[in-house]
Amino acid sequence: MRSAARKLAARKLSARTVTAAALLAVAAPLLGSANASAAAISTWDKVAQCEATGNWAINTGNGYYGGLQISMSTWRAYGGTQYAARPDQATKQQQILTGEKILAGQGQGAWPSCGPAAGLGADHRDPYPTAPSYPNPSSLPSGTLVKSPNGPQVKVMIAGAGIPVAGSDVTPDHYDLSKIVLVDDSAFNGLPGAPGAGTVVHDQAGGAGRYVIIDGAALQIGAADWTADGYNTRPDMGVPTAWLQGAAQRTVSNGRVVMDQTGTDPSRYVMVNGSALHISAAEWTANGYDSRSLMGVPTSWLAGTAARQLANGTIVKDASGANSTVYVLAGGVAVPLTYADFTGFGYDQRPLEGAPGEWLGAAAAKAAPADGTMLLSPDSNTVWQIVGGKKRAMAGSEFGAGKLSFDDVVSVPTAFTAKLANAS
Q1: Are 260 and 299 within 8 A, CB to CB?
Q2: Which of left, alpha, beta for 92 (phi over 0: left; psi -120 to 50: alpha)?
Q3: Stretch 80-96: mean pLDDT
């Protein structure tokens, strides 16, 4: 190959001298190192710029084609016709791959002027390196440390999930970083971040605590639950300390239906903001709870969660749709809101959760919020705190750093605070 400025006669002389070597190159391509005569794409771009002003589709009718100005005899001899009938009809990559064979067989002299000018003979980089083959992490056994070749993060495989390993976990959790397995980048990034529901785990660093994973949350298994609930029959997986600490603080997804893992209690519950709300037998089918995935949870955990007051400020309505009223939870009481309250207090900016109708009715019927609940109604700037079922006016000095927070005050309609008796 020569510069486009070279005379046609010179081109024909070059073509005759290179064709003989071509047959050997095709028959025995690169007997030595695979990249001994390779060059980076950027170097081939320089050759193309010199030979054909960077036009990889050029065909001027001079008998030489494409970005590397390859003659038809050379194109055929080096197998270029596997890609296209002529070089200019092939892609840039296909022309470079054929150019690699020509370079291996003839050296940079195949492009007498442009080859040396581009540094073609001194560049031994592979233009299209073959991607290494990595195992699929989901096929690896639990406990295997994995990482992508393109990042520093390390994960440990647990029941098909990739759990992040923090730097603080390595020593106490006894992770051997010399045994990390490189895995496919996209598969690594696509790993589930938590084991599947029902997986039993413990702190890899040790300790007696056992947990079951539900929706990425780690629910503690009580000592009495371990055998009674059948958790002792499941594989017990060690997980990174930092991850487990975070998972133990998470809550089961809103709307998840749960039951006692023993199966001896027929009661069913729906999770809302970390509390388990009882579903009556009549509502089980009528409200469609029977169509949801039902998860067994530790007996002691369920007892504590069912007794937990639904978080203040939670906005709920009857899941059946039979009652259109929207309520705000304040100290365990479901306080009804008008549309003006709903928007005026900014509650329309919060998630609206469905709650079983019978549970909601009982919460709305409660006489007063739990002691310690703080209320604010639009008729005044006074914040009221519930004491013994009555309200007392709070002083501004009770709020601030290390004291109570205004963030915990629940806005309620004036009619609700008005019906509460004043504390003496």
Answers
A1: yes
A2: alpha
A3: 95
